[in-house]
Design brief:
With 204 residues, the chain is mainly alpha-helical. The chain has one domain (34-203): Orthogonal Bundle (Hypothetical protein af1432). Helices cover 59% and strands 3% of the residues. The protein has helices spanning 2-10, 35-42, 60-74, 80-87, 93-96, 101-107, 109-125, 134-154, 160-167, 175-181, 187-203, and strands at 14-16, 22-24. It has a two-stranded antiparallel sheet with strand order 1-2. The longest helix has 21 residues, at 134-154.
Length: 204
């Protein structure tokens, strides 16, 4: 009995959510995914390993809203479903956390496999294709790089030239949007804004 129990605990690959769901990280079911859990988790995960200025962390939830805003500016006529996909592009991080790209490269393929499975399950849960078309994937990545440029220069201490070399050019958002999206929010506000934007996009 004790040996079986210890083996079970050692091999556990699921996480219990505040909603009560238990999500298997290696074989995720869309039925175990709730948007409230995603919003709550992402609002408490720090971008840039917390190495940003401001009174609060710059959360992954706030980052995803910035990415969707950049995509909206760059592709104003893009299908609303793909704006939702842009907002959910980092959703797996609500259970696996955010790691900087150089460290992801060190971890290699296993990390990517887990991340892709989680993202596919999240897409299915919210009515998106499990795998997004290459053209849209490239557009989301371009918006992600644009958001990273803004975060790097406004919050993470990078020079403009260094950010341009690493992430590409400034996406050119209106100044009012830059001020709002690049001021770190409280976790409560980030969670609330994420849920509100999700509701708007998913019901459009």
């Amino acid at each position: 009995m004790t040996a079986r129990k210890s083996s079970h605990v050692a091999n556990r690959a699921w996480q219990r959510m505040l909603s009560g769901r238990r999500l298997d990280l290696l074989d995720p079911s869309p039925l175990d995914i709730e948007i409230a859990d995603i919003a709550h988790g992402l609002a408490r995960v720090a971008r840039w390993n917390g190495q940003t200025s401001g009174a609060h962390i710059f959360s992954v939830a706030q980052h995803t809203l910035l990415v969707e805003a950049v995509m909206r500016e760059q592709m104003p006529r893009v299908d609303v479903r793909f704006r939702l996909a842009a907002m959910l592009h980092d959703a797996p991080e609500y259970v696996i956390g955010d790691m900087i790209s150089p460290f992801k490269a060190v971890l290699g393929g296993d990390y990517k496999v887990v991340e892709k499975r989680l993202l596919a399950a999240i897409h299915i849960r919210f009515g998106l294709p499990p795998i997004i078309a290459d053209e849209i994937t490239r557009a989301i990545k371009a918006a992600d790089r644009g958001a990273a440029h803004l975060e790097a220069t406004h919050l993470a201490g990078f020079s403009v030239s260094e950010a341009k070399r690493l992430f590409g050019r400034d996406p050119g958002l209106p100044e009012a949007m830059v001020r709002d999206y690049l001021t770190p929010w409280t976790a409560a506000r980030a969670e609330k804004q994420f849920l509100a934007r999700f509701e708007l996009l998913s019901s459009a």
